[in-house]
User: What shape does this take?
Amino acid sequence: MKRKTKILLIYTGGTIGMVKDYRTGSLRAFNFEELIKNIPELDQLDCELKGVSFKEPIDSSNMNPKYWALIATIIEDNYTEHDGFVVLHGSDTMSYSASALSFMLENLAKPVIFTGSQLPIGDLRTDAKENLITSIEIASLQENGQPVVQEVGLYFEYKLYRANRTTKINAEHFKAFASLNHPPLVESGVYLKVDHANLREPSPKKKPLKVHKNLDDNVAVLKLFPGLNQQVLRSVLGIPGLKALILETYGAGNAPMDKWFLDALEDSISKGLHIINVTQCSGGSVAMGHYETSKRLGSMQVIDGKDITTEAAITKAMYLLGTKISDRLFKTVFETSLRGEMS
Ligand code: ASP
Assistant: This one.
């Protein structure tokens, strides 16, 4: 007889498990048992389900690298015993957390699926049940005794995406996420349609899972806008201890050509700051040198973020800095796709 797959549900908080506090009128997190009680359908799934919960479930606006380390630890401690993991998480920062976990879990060979919802599970029109039930089904998919998905994914509104390619694009629609630079990995309709060609290939050597919990948060993001002045730029570049700056540029990686602007960036790079060029467009890629307005960025050794999302760039920088990689190697490794986060 076929063995039932074992799935661990990790509840961190988010709208999915919230109730209205009638005193204040705001949504607040409630406990895991209550959440599970609202989905009797879970008993019908053909898998063994276990759950663990954050002691105090949080709104994901309160997420931070310490919580990421906690999620990573839960996965690490339960890795051999389980076939897959479903992380229930608020949608607001889900792309950040899921991207972070993709870097933290090196040699991952099992599914880790992040999901949540726009409406609480107790609401009549909730999107939570479909998101949760299908995430568990996807985490349970096996072929030849191996998990079909062997990477960190994000499931929302009928689609499983590669987590580190996603961005939250809508605060109201059930379709809250997009992955403009990578196609969905699984689509849910009458059948679960798996796009095998776009899934990450398992590492051939079956290396053991390596969990990196030490992230370095000396990272900042600067979004360019017409009118950005010298004082603002100087203040950001002068942040004490800053090690990496994600520069959200225009279009295909373009920036103003003012001498004060480019000289300030070059000066910071020469002092050891890693500056990463990421486009502020949600789709498409940086192409340094394509326009005159990005030529000097390339020649001053600004790091090419290619088609990475800002969420993945921030968490990749935190991860790489945390590995204490040498300054010399940082640029080369950043420009290499480590977990399928860039094309
Ligand atoms: N504020 C909520 C959170 O991110 C929104 C959600 O879950 O969709 O925790």
Notes: The first strand starts at residue 5 and ends at 13. The chain has two domains: 5-211, 219-334. The mean pLDDT is 94.
